[in-house]
C-alpha cells in the first residue's frame, strides 16, 4: 500500500470541519457532564427517599446502558413524542448525560473525602447550609476531583465518534465520507488518529496545569 | 492590647441583652448513648456566666461529648439543654440556629478552612451569619489576629502555618463571632510539645481579660489550675467530683480522682 500525500492534503479541509464538531461535542459534553453530575451528586444527599430513589434509578439506568443505544433512543424516539432537536444537539446532550452518571460518582467521592471536621467547624460558626456547601465543602471537593474528571474528558473524547451513528459528521464521519468518495482509507483514518492523540495530549496538559493551579 | 477588639459581649449592650451573673448553661438529665454504650448517664450540670469550667477524666468518660452536645454537633437521647435561658434541646432548627450564635468552639484538629486565607477564615462567618460589612469584619479579624500574635499572617493559607499558629487562628475565628460561651475541646492535644505554650498563653490571656464563659476539656493540668473557677471530674458519663482547682488538684475527696490525677500529672 502506498501513502498518498495528496490524499492527506485533500482531506485536511474536511478534517478541519470534523475537528470543530468533535471539539464542540467534547467541550459542551464536558460542561453538561460536570454540571449535571454535580446536580445528581447533591440530589443523592437530600435526606429523602422521594428524591434519592428516582435519581438513583435514572442514573443507574443511564450508566448501565450503552451510549449508542441512548443516542439512537434520543434521536429516533424523542421526535415521536414531539421533541425534535438537531443531531448535534442530541449528540452533545446524550454524551453529557451519559458521562454525568460517572462524574456524579467522582463528585460523591470528593464530597465524602472532605473531613467531617470541616462540617463541624461550619456548624460551630453557624454558617447556613447553603453557604457551607458553596464556600467550604464544594471548593475542597472540586479541587480533589479535577484529576478524575479529567480522565473522563479523555474518555469522552474517545466516545465522540459514536455520534456518527446519528448522522453527525465529526472527525470519523468526515474521514469515512472522504474515504468512500475517493477510495482512499489509509490517509484520512491515520490523520484523524493522529488528531485524536494530539487533542488528548493537549487536554491532559491543560488538566495538569489546572491541577497545579488548584494546589495553590 | 486593643481592648475594643476583645470579645466582650457583656459590655456591649447593643449586641447582647444585659447578662446577669447567673446561670448561663444548664443540662438536665442529659443522656447520650452510642449504640449500647451510654456515654452520658442522666447528667445534670450548670455553668454560671463568666465562669471557666474544666472537665477532666479518663478518655471515654463523656467530657468531649458534652461540648459536642452544646455545639449541637450531637443530639442527646434524653434530657434538656438550656443556654442563656433559651432551650437548645429540644428545639426547632430555627431556635437552634439562634441559640447557637451564643456558642463558639475550638477543635482538637483546628478545622480551619484550607481553601481560604487566614483572614477569610475569620471574616467568613461574621459577614454571612452576623451581617457585618466586609470592612467591619476585617477590622475585627485584624484585632483578633493581633491578640493571638499572628497579625502578619492575614494572607497566608492554613497549610502554610504551624499547628500552633493554626490553632491560634481557630481561636480568633471562634472569638470573631463574639460568643458568650467558648468551648475548648483538647485544643493542644494535636500540637507538637513546643507549640503548646503559645496556644495556652493566648487562652490564659483571653480568660483573664474577658468575661467570656469557658468550658474546657484538657489534659494540661497546669493550665486547668491557672484558668479554672471549677473543675469537674468525670468517670463513666457521670460527674463524680467537682470543686475549685485547689481542692481537686491538691486534696481530692475520691480515690478515683486521686488515681486519675497521679496518672496524668
Automatic annotation (TrEMBL), chain A:
Mode of membrane association: Multi-pass membrane protein
Cellular localisation: Cell membrane
Methyltransferase recorded as keyword: no
Domain of life: Bacteria
Keyword Nuclease among record annotations: no
CDD domains xref list: TM_PBP2
Pfam families: BPD_transp_1 (PF00528)
Coiled coil (UniProt feature): none
Residue intervals passing through the bilayer: 20-43, 81-99, 189-210
Gene3D superfamilies documented for this protein: MetI-like (1.10.3720.10)
Keywords for the protein's UniProt record, in alphabetical order: Amino-acid transport, Cell membrane, Membrane, Transmembrane, Transmembrane helix, Transport
Domain ABC transmembrane type-1: residue ranges: 19-207
InterPro entries: AA_ABC_transptr_permease_3TM, ArtM/GltK/GlnP/TcyL/YhdX-like, Ectoine_EhuD, MetI-like, MetI-like_sf
Chief place of localization: membrane
NCBIfam families: ectoine_ehuD, HEQRo_perm_3TM
Similarity annotation: Belongs to the binding-protein-dependent transport system permease family.
Protein's name according to its UniProt entry: Ectoine/hydroxyectoine ABC transporter permease subunit EhuD
Species in which this protein is naturally found: Streptomyces indiaensis
Lineage start: Bacteria, Bacillati, Actinomycetota, Actinomycetes, Kitasatosporales
Gene giving rise to this polypeptide: ehuD
UniProtKB/TrEMBL annotation, chain B:
Residue ranges of every copy of the ABC transporter domain listed in the record: 25-261
Pfam family, one: ABC_tran
UniProt-listed CDD domains: ABC_HisP_GlnQ
Keywords: Amino-acid transport, ATP-binding, Cell membrane, Membrane, Nucleotide-binding, Transport
Segments of this protein annotated with the region Disordered: 1-20
Topology in the lipid bilayer: Peripheral membrane protein
Cell location: Cell membrane
Major site of localization recorded for this protein: membrane
Transmembrane segments: none
Domain of life according to the entry: Bacteria
A GO molecular-function descriptor: ATP binding
Similarity remark: Belongs to the ABC transporter superfamily.
Name of the protein: Ectoine/hydroxyectoine ABC transporter ATP-binding protein EhuA
Organism of this sequence: Streptomyces indiaensis
Gene: ehuA
Amino acid at each position: 500500500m502506498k501513502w498518498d500525500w495528496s490524499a492527506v492534503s485533500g482531506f485536511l479541509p474536511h478534517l478541519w470541519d470534523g475537528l470543530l464538531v468533535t471539539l464542540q461535542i467534547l467541550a459542551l459534553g464536558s460542561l453538561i457532564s460536570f454540571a449535571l453530575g454535580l446536580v445528581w451528586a447533591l440530589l443523592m444527599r437530600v435526606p429523602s427517599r422521594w428524591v434519592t430513589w428516582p435519581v438513583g434509578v435514572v442514573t443507574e439506568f443511564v450508566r448501565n446502558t450503552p451510549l449508542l443505544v441512548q443516542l439512537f433512543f434520543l434521536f429516533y424516539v424523542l421526535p415521536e413524542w414531539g421533541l425534535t432537536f438537531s443531531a448535534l444537539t442530541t449528540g452533545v446532550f446524550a454524551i453529557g448525560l451519559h458521562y454525568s452518571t460517572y462524574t456524579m460518582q467522582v463528585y460523591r467521592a470528593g464530597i465524602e473525602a472532605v473531613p467531617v471536621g470541616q462540617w463541624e467547624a461550619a456548624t460551630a460558626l453557624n454558617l447556613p447550609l447553603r453557604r457551607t456547601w458553596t464556600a467550604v465543602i464544594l471548593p475542597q471537593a472540586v479541587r480533589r476531583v479535577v484529576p478524575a474528571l479529567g480522565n473522563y474528558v479523555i474518555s469522552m473524547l474517545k466516545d465522540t465518534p459514536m455520534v456518527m451513528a446519528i448522522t453527525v459528521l465529526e472527525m470519523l464521519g468526515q474521514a469515512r465520507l472522504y474515504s468512500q468518495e475517493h477510495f482512499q482509507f489509509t490517509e484520512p483514518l491515520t490523520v484523524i488518529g493522529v488528531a485524536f492523540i494530539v487533542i488528548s495530549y493537549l487536554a491532559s496538559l491543560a488538566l495538569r496545569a489546572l491541577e497545579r493551579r488548584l494546589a495553590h | 492590647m486593643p481592648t475594643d477588639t476583645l470579645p466582650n459581649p457583656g459590655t456591649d449592650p447593643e449586641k447582647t441583652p444585659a447578662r446577669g451573673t447567673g446561670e448561663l448553661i444548664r443540662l438536665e438529665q442529659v443522656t447520650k448513648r452510642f449504640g449500647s454504650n451510654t456515654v452520658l448517664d442522666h447528667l445534670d450540670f450548670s455553668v454560671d456566666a463568666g465562669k471557666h469550667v474544666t472537665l477532666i477524666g479518663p478518655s471515654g468518660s463523656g467530657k468531649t461529648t458534652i461540648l459536642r452536645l452544646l455545639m449541637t454537633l450531637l443530639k442527646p437521647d434524653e434530657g434538656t439543654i438550656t443556654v442563656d435561658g433559651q432551650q437548645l434541646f429540644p428545639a426547632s432548627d430555627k431556635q437552634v440556629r439562634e441559640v447557637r450564635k451564643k456558642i463558639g468552639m475550638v477543635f482538637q484538629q483546628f478545622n480551619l478552612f484550607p481553601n481560604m486565607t487566614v483572614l477569610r477564615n475569620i471574616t467568613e462567618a461574621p459577614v454571612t451569619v452576623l451581617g457585618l460589612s466586609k470592612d467591619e469584619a476585617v477590622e475585627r479579624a485584624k484585632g483578633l489576629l493581633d491578640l493571638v500574635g499572628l497579625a502578619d499572617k492575614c494572607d497566608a493559607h492554613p497549610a502554610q502555618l504551624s499547628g500552633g499558629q493554626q490553632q491560634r487562628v481557630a481561636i480568633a475565628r471562634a472569638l470573631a463571632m463574639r460568643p458568650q460561651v467558648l468551648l475548648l475541646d483538647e485544643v493542644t492535644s494535636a500540637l507538637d510539645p513546643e507549640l503548646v505554650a503559645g496556644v495556652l498563653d493566648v487562652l490564659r490571656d483571653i480568660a483573664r481579660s474577658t468575661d467570656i464563659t469557658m468550658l474546657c476539656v484538657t489534659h494540661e493540668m497546669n493550665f486547668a489550675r491557672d484558668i479554672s473557677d471549677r473543675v469537674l471530674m468525670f468517670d463513666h458519663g457521670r460527674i463524680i467530683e467537682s470543686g475549685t482547682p485547689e481542692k481537686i488538684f491538691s486534696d481530692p475527696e475520691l480515690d478515683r480522682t486521686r488515681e486519675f490525677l497521679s496518672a496524668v500529672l
